[in-house]
Design brief:
The protein is an all-alpha fold. The protein contains 20 helices and two strands. Strand 1 and strand 2 form a beta hairpin.
């Protein structure tokens, strides 16, 4: 029996060797990440020649490049293109890059998130009063965005790991880019060490899977994992577990979340916003691809593991966020950091449910991710505005914000209510309901109960912060005597406006996101 299975593996290798190795390239399919990477290189070279007084042009070039990459998603909306394919003598067609519905939605999320981050960063890289080196910053941001846009399209383990590292390596430097800031350097070091550990574990897991199956393409791995010879089953199972552990680091799932609060606090606020959304998208895209596409035959392994991780992650994140002291320095950023850990737990629920009831549940994660991306970026954008006049970004600094900046206060309240799942944040409520329904449909009633309890815990700190926005400022004898003021600029205001409009549109037209919740994306 084992000899026969070994012969099958050898035959599969022969087929790959006999495949057409001259691959055609669908340039339109790869255009969004390719254009982003090209603009990053252009900015890196242009930085050598652009004078200090005109460094702002680099930022507008980055913004234009990201907008163009987003526009290039429109011709791909049919979601039926693949490239870098090997076609063997059989009917098997293995491709390394696929622009399907899942890919396009995640690429839209990634590129839009990077665009909002760029708008928030524009003033910090201004040549006249910049806090960050312009050329390096824009190159690193666009390089990371290119890797993040490549990852959801990856359909082999090698491309998946390369995309993960292209997205992660520039992020280390972005976190530590504030020169002379010890807190920034410490945050970058923690982020680097945790990510390097995650990469090492992921590579070890991928190597075990390759040794057991003899292939790297996800669809072929899925076919061969079910027929792994007996002596190699332990190796394959270990590879599956290690690969999942590596991606769990990237998503900040408990107990691999310890780097998140300090990293977000030490990073420039636009970078923290970027990590909270785009970094999450990278990790969850990887988890979805390796579990649902590559490892469906091991659903009995990763399904229960992800369900437990989801319960632990949402519980730890919400409890830690609830314990934040409003007068502590950087408490606003720390609360959003712990909130992002809790939200990661919610995002894991439909993936765990897919192990029990099929990959239709993956759409719930995508729908929730769209909601979370819009409102979480918006919340960070308002925090960044307040931090310009209150550098330590305490939650207490938001007291009385409505008195001086009604628009910013209303936007922040809307973002927080969406995260809490309360009206008028309709999309936040519907997204939580879809995730809850995914757990129920999969027979994970215990996980649905834990999620319900955590949603209630989340209400406490989201509503507490929301109420603070409309209270009378401390020391003010009358409503007219606020202590909170904002220094706004056009790019930062546009970033808040774009995220607020996205949240309002999704709340008024939730079908745009929720249609994915009832359909398979593969």
């Amino acid at each position: 029996m084992q000899l026969a299975q070994g012969a099958d593996l050898a035959q599969g290798a022969d087929l790959v060797q006999g495949a057409d190795l001259v691959q055609s390239v669908d340039w339109l399919a790869i255009a969004p990440p390719a254009l982003t990477a090209l603009v990053a290189l252009v900015i890196l070279v242009a930085d050598l020649f652009v004078p200090e007084a005109r460094k702002r042009l680099l930022g507008w070039t980055a913004i234009g490049g990201l907008a163009a990459a987003l526009a290039l998603l429109a011709p791909l909306r049919a979601g039926d293109r693949s490239t870098f394919c090997l076609t063997a003598a059989t009917q098997l067609r293995a491709c390394s890059y696929t622009a399907d519905t899942f890919t396009l939605v995640i690429q839209f999320l990634v590129l839009a998130g990077a665009l909002v981050t760029a708008l928030l960063s524009l003033d910090d890289t201004d040549g006249t009063r910049r806090k960050l080196p312009a050329g390096e910053y824009w190159f690193l941001l666009l390089s990371s965005a290119a890797g993040a846009a490549l990852l959801p399209a990856s359909r082999d383990l090698a491309t998946l790991v390369v995309a993960l590292e292209v997205a992660s390596l520039p992020a280390f430097a972005l976190v530590g880019l504030r020169r002379g800031d010890k807190m920034s350097g410490e945050a970058a070091l923690k982020f680097f060490l945790s990510s390097v550990t995650a990469t090492a574990v992921t590579l070890l897991g991928v190597s075990f899977v390759y040794a057991a199956t003899g292939t790297l393409h996800l669809t072929e791995v899925a076919q061969r994992l079910g027929d792994v010879p007996g002596p190699l089953q332990t190796l394959a199972r270990t590879g599956v577990v290690l690969t999942l552990v590596g991606f769990a680091f990237k998503t900040a799932a408990v107990p691999f979340h310890f780097w998140v609060p300090d990293t977000y606090v030490g990073a420039p606020l636009p970078v923290a916003a970027y990590l909270s959304v785009v970094g999450k998208a990278v990790g969850f895209s990887g988890i979805i691809l390796v579990t649902v596409v590559a490892f469906p035959s091991y659903a009995d392994v990763w399904g229960p593991a992800l369900a437990v991780l989801a319960a632990l992650t949402m519980s730890a994140g919400n409890v830690a966020a609830l314990r934040q002291v409003s007068t502590r320095a950087w408490s606003a950023v720390r609360l959003l950091a712990w909130s992002s850990v809790a939200q990661a737990g919610y995002l894991l629920v439909p993936i765990a449910a897919a192990a029990y009831s099929g990959d239709d549940q993956i759409g719930s994660t995508v729908a929730y991710a769209l909601m979370y991306a819009a409102v979480n970026l918006g919340a960070f954008a308002v925090v960044a505005l307040v931090a310009r006049t209150h550098p330590e970004a305490r939650i207490s600094d938001f007291r009385g914000l409505y008195a001086t900046s009604p628009a910013a206060a209303l936007a922040m309240a809307f973002f927080l209510l969406n995260l809490a799942g309360l009206p008028p944040g309709i999309i936040g409520l519907f997204a939580k309901v879809t995730v809850f329904s995914a757990a129920i449909d999969a027979g994970l009633g215990w996980l649905a109960v834990i999620m319900g309890v955590n949603v209630v815990i989340g209400l406490a700190y989201y509503l507490r912060w929301t109420a603070l926005l409309f209270r009378r400022p401390e020391g003010a004898a009358a409503p007219a005597g606020p202590v909170v003021s904002l220094r706004t600029t056009a790019p930062a205001t546009l970033a808040v406006a774009l995220t607020a409009v996205a949240g309002v549109v999704l709340s008024g037209w939730p079908q745009f996101a929720l249609r994915y919740a009832s359909n398979s994306l593969f």
